[in-house]
């Protein structure tokens, strides 16, 4: 009877591990998104802010109201920018399953989406960005890659 109970407990634990939604993820998570991040550049970019005062200055300079300076407290904040786009329908999304810390580099895997050529989209300039809480770890570089492996931005962690 004890042997049977032990087997069920072990099987239950194994099943719980296999359905864990955080399995294989880096711990990085999205804490905010904005359709307008105040850039006039079409280039994608990544920024790391270690503290709230520097982040607040950047938010004021860019006139971004969706994010709060307090987002950078306790571990900093990473902003991934898509760059300015001519219409709506563009988006970026964190792929936690492919995001990892390797050596001294945190690689953020992002899915970049563009509207189909025949899609009905708004005719307005957008500059999407995502605020990401970085995972704990010992790394000095952040690298952002898209689903094809293209580097879309890099930042130093200070």
Automatic annotation (TrEMBL):
Gene Ontology terms for molecular function? peptidase activity
Q: Which InterPro entries match?
A: PrcB_C_dom (IPR025748)
Instruction: Tell me the keywords, alphabetical order.
Output: Hydrolase, Protease
Residue limits of the PrcB C-terminal domain?
78-125
Q: Does the keyword Membrane apply?
A: no
Q: Which regions form coiled coils? A: none
According to its UniProt entry, one GO biological process term is: proteolysis
| Sequence intervals crossing the membrane | none
State the protein's name.
Answer: Protease complex subunit PrcB family protein
Query: Whose protein is this, by species?
Result: Salinisphaera aquimarina
Q: What is the lineage of its organism?
A: Bacteria, Pseudomonadati, Pseudomonadota, Gammaproteobacteria, Salinisphaerales
